[in-house]
Amino acid sequence: MTKEQIEIIKNCIPILQKNGEDLTKEFYKIMFNDYPEVKPMFNMEKQTSGEQPKALAMAILKAAQNIENLENIKAYVEHVGKTHVKLNVKKEHYPIVGACLLKAIKNLLNADENTLKAWEVAYGKIADFYIQIEEELYKKQA
């Protein structure tokens, strides 16, 4: 990531703190509409209660706050990764999440091209980190 992209992500932290759940609710709406095949991987009770959007909002916030050093959130990612392994989340699911997250950012933040590009690059970095940890967890499970 460039210094400018890192700065854009960090500048989004106050928005994520205030409106992160709105962003993730929009994200889930988009994902379940555009990719209904992933819906069975989710607990709809946690969608209705707001627990899942809140958890994702926290994950995005933590990633944004630590975008320069994701190792700072390794324990958190390992915790999330254990749930992902139980649900059989695979590497190929991450592009779906990325596409839907970018749509949600564009819809809710009226993000310009520089902001969208920064989030695209940041998401790639964050997804790679999650995938790496989850692959280690899958190996331990085997």
Automatic annotation (TrEMBL):
The keyword Transport applies. Residues 1-135 form the Globin domain. CDD domains: VtHb-like_SDgb. Keywords: Heme, Iron, Metal-binding, Oxygen transport, Transport. PROSITE patterns: GLOBIN (PS01033). It comes from the Bacteria. Pfam families: Globin. Gene3D superfamilies: Globins. One of its GO terms (molecular function) is metal ion binding. One of its GO terms (biological process) is nitric oxide catabolic process. Belongs to the globin family. PANTHER family: FLAVOHEMOPROTEIN. This is Globin. It comes from Campylobacter novaezeelandiae.
